[in-house]
């Protein structure tokens, strides 16, 4: 097979690879996406869901930047929930259950409709490298395909090793072969290679579950969705269910601990702290008599269910025996057992913030190969790698999102400046300025940026401009319109708020926590025109309400971020030898030499770098 040279080759068609290919192609690069199985693009190899705490914000940011994950999620969801609605809007996080087969098929369809993307089903076994420049890839079929840039998104496939009890065998996922050769070559090139571990639970035949003994968890009545475009919104939803383990279940699982690869030392990789296996939870929280489990359907037309919270690498017969002691699962049958998988990753300190490697120009890493876990974390890295590889081919500076602009910026900055000693998962607590990084305003933060890159198309940008204008008009109306005591006091009393004695602006009244804008719309004749709002207008009304209610907090956060942003504008010398700065501690010199931060702000976030060290650097720079 003869291949013409490509601008960019993307290795792997998981969530990172699909977003990377789409972004690069939409920016005009000629892209080849190589995958071992074209039927499994963006496969949901773990739980059938997108979004969640902080992860939902990432999906909305991907969408605002012109990525596809939000669109695919909206088109294939079977349930939607906005999490944390009892808290402030900085904590609201969209999440959906997906039909995992539809999800993969929809991704493939979108990519096949994307100009500039070619496909090749094969296994990449090595890279073509000349000096410190990547030149393409080598494949199992014997092909050598040239490219100006390569993005590696291999997920858990690099030297993947699956564990079930005392059984261990090579594999990238259950039923799929692992990839050998790439890690070994990169190690020879000077890259550090380490091991991590993740896992997955049993898949259950829903026909054998007694749902009457479980707690039903329905979706929201209002399906907000992820994409800012006019995507389809489901009219019906499938329920999830809640179950619980017991001491009897725990005792049964303990019988298998002596066969556990986690406890007998056969697994060397570190697992995710925030998504532990059930045996790990039993050990770590030994005082708990029960753990909550979520029973999640995997699609519209399948009876396969995912038991979230029951991830395990114990022998299959132990998993099965323990499962049948959970209330509602007494007669359960399984499609396949849970398992753990170990795989290679490359500590992300070896990357620039563009996700290009420091050792080989034109080579980018994205997803689990960087030590992250989760579809959303992988997808946003793929998007950024695709964008930056395309920008590099244009000789333009990379797009590096700051911690004040996006959760994506927080994630990448954490990876590069702090590294990982366990699979990284995003949480709202990781973002210092989360009130600025809300799920509702991702378009306001990122769409204009995406439009300038050529990713967000004209229609998307115009819709963003219309929304921005409409929000300002609604805010102006609420700031200019008065409510009188006789028309508003009934509503105030009904909601447990004190009466007013004289007229007051609607925006002022809206500051009361007991009152929402929708309450005022239904009660006040002056807002009657908003009562039958379409989806677009509802979105604008909600955004205007958040901006008014939290204006003082947002202003304070903006002032703080402006002060801290000054550090980000102070550039540090490239490839500087910090050992010459004797005023720094030895540990600080070692870390600064290793990470080579690009700005004073990045240096300040490296673990072990003190404020005194930052002062030394500032003085050295003449600041």
CATH hierarchy, class of the domain at 203-339:
Mainly Beta
* Main beta sheet strand tally, sense and closure: 7 strands, mixed
Question: What proportion of the residues form beta strands (DSSP E)?
Answer: 15-25%
Low-confidence stretches: none
Short summary of the structure?
This protein has 623 residues and is an alpha+beta fold.
Fold and architecture overview:
The chain has 623 residues and is α+β, with helices and mostly antiparallel strands. Among the domains are: 203-339, Elongation Factor Tu (Ef-tu), domain 3; 458-553, Arc Repressor Mutant, subunit A; 569-620, Orthogonal Bundle (DNA polymerase, domain 1). It is built from 20 helices and 22 strands. The strands form 5 sheets. Strands 1, 2, 6, 7, 8, 9 and 20 form a 7-stranded mixed sheet that branches. Strands 14-15-16-17-13-18 form a 6-stranded antiparallel sheet, with no helix packed on it. Helix 2 (55-64) runs parallel beside helix 9 (375-393), helix 3 packs across helix 4 and helix 11 (442-453) packs antiparallel against helix 12.
